[in-house]
């Protein structure tokens, strides 16, 4: 089957959504314009496991404009925008995704992408790469490289590299400054609250919000919560980050202690069981739990299910769990089944910020091609890079920022020859 989507009749709506995203992603459109002339991916197949959103739709079209044959599965069972998937299917892309996938379909769809025999892979979370390495080793020889979008995926790749298990070069797109300083911070900061507020419509002013973690994503979440009038508590395991959170003006404590104080809890750590049943037992009745980390393991949902005496779906993305019985019973609310709340209950990061991330993906694919030797028929032969996790050269990161500044109509200064000489010298002091 060339595609599997929820309803192909949603294609018209999907086309409008992609038009909206395009209007807010000028830097990516500039890359697409160049790709239309240079066709860097002629003869190549690109397989993707990304959130199937309107922004990803624009990336898919950009890669196609560059000459690639593109196939895509979702990288999360709850994040697909069904209208966008339908539009891509109608345009002839091999797309396998619907919102609410079960685990069987999730992996079947990733295998469908693998069946297209990609020369390049684009992942968000490393499920496509790990599936190829575990169960489709025969494809490894024809893959020239891959790109990874997110912190969790890069961590998995580094674990593969340390295990000597990684068999083709990977670009950690997440490590671009133009990715994590913007997407993770501003994107997650805004879209997490978009998801929580769409799911609950609670007033944030005056609430106590507990943010687990103080990386780029959690810092954005804490900042926006504070901007909406919440009292923010941060929990961390890394001492430097904990200190940073404290000096940014937040209370810092153990989850154990924060559990009794919070009205809303958000995890964005990349870790497992950051909120466990022991913490849940200590929480106030009415506490809301949401996750913004890549996988649905940060909140012990299974433990909550087991411990609950009753559960009820109160709103589309808000489930009520009752703990205990009688006078001592209390309710805990879990959003989006503990999956990425921003992509499940809302639309993920806004297009403006995804333009930067997806310029990174597009230029990372081009860089991998530049680093590879082409077979005479135009297909990929092999990469000159050894299997490892790579960061893109600084010039490419700078190019992305310049494209975005250009799109925003912002001019910046450049260093004079004298200034450059001074900056690179050591003789001149006070
Ligand atoms: N990750 C977070 N937001 C996203 C979006 N809008 N599209 C694709 N991936 C995302």
Describe the 3D structure.
The protein folds into 2 domains: 8-179 and 349-407, Rossmann fold (3-Layer(aba) Sandwich), CATH 3.40.50; 186-344, NAD(P)-binding Rossmann-like Domain (Rossmann fold, 3-Layer(aba) Sandwich), CATH 3.40.50. The protein is 44% helix and 17% strand. It is built from 17 helices and 17 strands. The strands form 3 sheets. An 8-stranded mixed β-sheet has the order 9-8-7-10-11-14-13-12, with helices on both faces. Helix 7 links the parallel strand 5 (145-148) and strand 6. Helix 1 (11-23) crosses helix 4. The chain starts with 10 loop residues before the first helix and ends in a 7-residue tail after the last helix. The structure holds adenine. Adenine binds at residues 50-51, 53, 55-56, 343, 348-349, 354.
What descriptors fit this protein?
430 residues, alpha/beta, Rossmann fold, 2 domains, eight-stranded mixed sheet, seven-stranded parallel sheet, 17 helices, 17 strands, 44% helix, globular, binds adenine
Short note summarizing the structure:
Helix content is about 45%, strand content about 15%. By secondary structure, it is an alpha/beta fold.
């Amino acid at each position: 089957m060339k595609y599997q989507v929820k309803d192909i009749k949603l294609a018209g709506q999907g086309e409008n959504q992609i038009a909206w995203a395009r209007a807010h992603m000028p830097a990516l459109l500039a890359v697409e314009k160049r790709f239309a002339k240079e066709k860097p991916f002629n003869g190549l197949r690109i397989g993707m496991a990304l959130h199937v959103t309107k922004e990803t739709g624009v990336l898919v079209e950009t890669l196609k404009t560059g000459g690639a044959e593109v196939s895509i599965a979702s990288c999360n069972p709850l994040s697909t925008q069904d209208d966008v998937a339908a539009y891509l299917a109608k345009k002839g892309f091999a797309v396998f995704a619907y919102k609410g996938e079960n685990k069987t379909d999730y992996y079947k769809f990733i295998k469908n992408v693998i069946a297209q025999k990609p020369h390049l892979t684009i992942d968000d979370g490393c499920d496509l790469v790990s599936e190829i390495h575990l169960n489709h080793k025969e494809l490894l020889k024809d893959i020239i490289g891959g790109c990874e979008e997110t912190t969790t995926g890069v961590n998995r790749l580094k674990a593969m590299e340390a295990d000597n298990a990684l068999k083709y070069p990977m670009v950690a797109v997440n490590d671009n400054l133009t990715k994590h300083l913007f997407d993770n911070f501003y994107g997650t900061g805004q879209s997490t609250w978009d998801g929580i507020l769409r799911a609950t419509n609670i007033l944030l002013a005056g609430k106590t919000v507990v943010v687990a973690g103080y990386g780029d994503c959690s810092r954005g979440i804490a900042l926006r919560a504070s901007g909406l009038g919440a009292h923010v508590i941060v929990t961390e395991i890394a001492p430097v980050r904990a200190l940073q959170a404290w000096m940014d003006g937040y209370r810092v404590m153990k989850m154990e202690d924060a559990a009794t104080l919070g009205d809303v809890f958000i995890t964005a750590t990349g870790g497992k069981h950051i909120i466990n049943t022991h913490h849940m037992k200590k929480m106030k009745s009415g506490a809301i739990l949401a996750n913004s980390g890549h996988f649905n393991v940060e909140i012990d949902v299974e433990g909550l299910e087991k411990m609950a005496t009753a559960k009820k779906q109160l709103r589309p993305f808000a489930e009520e769990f009752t703990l205990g019985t009688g006078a001592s019973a209390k309710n805990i609310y879990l959003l989006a089944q503990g999956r990425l709340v921003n992509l499940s209950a809302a639309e993920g990061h806004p297009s403006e910020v995804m333009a930067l991330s997806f310029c990174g993906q597009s230029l990372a694919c081009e860089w991998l091609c530049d680093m590879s030797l082409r077979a005479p028929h135009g297909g990929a032969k092999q990469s000159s890079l050894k299997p490892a996790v790579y960061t893109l050269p600084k010039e490419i990161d700078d190019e992305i920022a310049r494209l975005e500044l250009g799109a925003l109509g912002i001019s910046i200064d450049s260093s004079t020859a004298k200034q450059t000489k001074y900056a690179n010298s050591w003789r001149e002091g006070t």
